[in-house]
Design a protein that fits this description.
With about 400 residues, the chain is of the alpha/beta class. Helix content is about 40%, strand content about 20%. The strands form 2 sheets. Strands 1, 2, 3, 4, 5, 6, 7, 8 and 9 form a 9-stranded mixed sheet that branches. Helix 7 runs antiparallel to helix 8. It binds adenosine-5'-triphosphate and magnesium ion.
């Protein structure tokens, strides 16, 4: 079929009374941004739908992009024809013929915006349905749950036929839920948590701790490249890299081994909260999941969370690893996440970190380091880069890749 437009149906936002205008404006903006590279498209956001006129651009590529934009319930590619019953009938029959498999059932569902059109919806259903029955041998009409519903919309500017509904990403348009910072490592979990935060409309800035020379340039590049993948779902992302080496060395030197991990995490969270506040964002997201590792028990979370009153949100909190991996595969971050570049935390993780750290002890051990000065130095040392959807950073020539291939 030679499609002329993609019709986009809004998700949940159609139920949000007073915020509706903002939602539609934001969704329109996000759709425009994600379709930037297709120069001939015309995008028009209306109160109940958005129409993307293809003007010759490839429908499959445009649909693929749209399917990653939050706030879209589903999309339907449609063919626009003149308001001429003969043409409508022929197009309908051609569409059904293309999709026909033996035993297929269908019905016609007509909507009429143009009430001056010479036939009403019942007449059109009958005429078009009858013609399809005649031209596509073996096809049957079924009113209840047919295999295919052929939608015919008589609008003022033409008649639109569509028969496919392709599921969208759901959720809310990114940007309608405010701004937060995401603690992004190079692992499997935090990119998935980022995706889920964005799904609820939150615009993210990434905070990433790195620790050269203990962690390599490639580990940093991996976190940036993961950010590029995540940016596919909500546009450009600010990536904030925080130098963490000095803090880790201080902690390692002064804090008892059982509390190394807890104190490191307290410092990370404290610095992230300082960055979040300075940027006027309203929360912190992490990729933690309850019970997954030592730092992710309730006791640990309490001991770590103690350093800030800012909301710390954990979209993966009750997910199993295999559920998380499924999403990682779907959003195309999994293969990157499992590349073996060392993370700053693994290097300084003691063989037996406390799984139930004590809050008072955590507070006391922390007094062994100069918290304020270290936080200030780290915050002063941040570097910020803007990362575009699908931007790449890893040096694919390096030995580790050669070995992996
Ligand atoms: P992930 O797969 O996201 O690395 P994980 O299961 O390996 O998670 P941890 O390494 O304990 O768990 O990290 C828990 C969370 O702490 C991460 O999901 C992330 O939000 C944050 N975090 C860990 N390391 C870093 C880092 N280097 N920079 C920023 N945030 C980090
Ligand atoms: Mg990790």
């Amino acid at each position: 079929m030679n499609y002329s437009e993609i019709m986009v149906r809004y998700g949940e936002l159609s139920t949000k009374g007073k915020n509706r205008k903002d939602f539609i404006r934001q969704l329109g903006q996000n759709v425009r941004q994600s379709l930037q590279e297709f120069e001939n498209l015309e995008i028009k956001a209306q109160h109940d739908r958005l129409h993307v006129t293809l003007n010759g651009e490839p429908d499959d590529a445009v649909i693929k992009r749209l399917s990653g934009v939050f706030g879209i319930e589903n999309v339907s590619p449609s063919v626009k024809v003149e308001k001429d019953v003969a043409v409508i009938k022929q197009t309908a029959a051609a569409m059904m013929q293309e999709q026909f498999v033996p035993g297929m059932t269908f019905k016609i569902n007509t909507r009429r915006q143009d009430h001056d059109f010479e036939y009403d919806t019942n007449q059109l259903n009958d005429m078009v349905g009858g013609y399809v029955l005649e031209k596509v041998p073996g096809i049957k009409v079924q009113m209840k749950k047919p295999d295919v519903i052929l939608r015919v919309e008589v609008r003022l500017n033409g008649v639109f036929l569509s028969s496919e509904i392709i599921e969208g990403a759901g959720g809310l348009p990114v940007g309608t839920g405010g701004r937060a910072v995401m603690m992004l490592s190079g692992g499997i979990d935090s990119p998935v948590a980022s995706y889920l935060a964005m799904k609820r409309g939150v615009k993210l800035d990434m905070v990433h701790f790195f620790s050269p020379p203990y962690t390599s340039y490639q580990a940093l590049a991996k976190a940036k490249e993961l950010t590029g993948k995540v940016a596919n779902f909500g546009g450009d992302i600010q990536f904030i890299q925080v130098p963490f080496r000095k803090i880790q060395e201080e902690i390692k030197e002064k804090v008892p081994e059982g509390y190394l991990m807890t104190i490191q995490r307290r410092m990370m969270l404290r610095i992230t909260a300082a960055i979040a506040e300075a940027r006027h964002t309203k929360g912190i997201f992490t990729g933690e999941s309850l019970g997954q590792v030592a730092s992710q028990t309730l006791e640990s979370m309490m001991a770590i969370n103690d350093v800030t009153t800012m909301p710390v949100l954990r979209p993966l909190v009750s997910m199993d690893k295999d559920e998380i991996i499924k999403i990682a595969e779907k959003i195309d971050t999994y293969d990157l996440s499992i590349l073996p570049f060392e993370d700053c935390c693994t290097i300084f993780t003691p063989p037996a970190p406390k799984t139930r750290p004590d809050l008072e002890k955590s507070r006391n051990f922390e007094k062994l380091i100069d918290v304020d000065a270290l936080v200030k130095e780290a915050v002063d040392g941040i570097e910020i880069v803007n990362i575009k959807p699908n931007e790449t950073f890893l040096n694919k020539q390096e030995d580790v890749f050669a070995e992996l291939l």
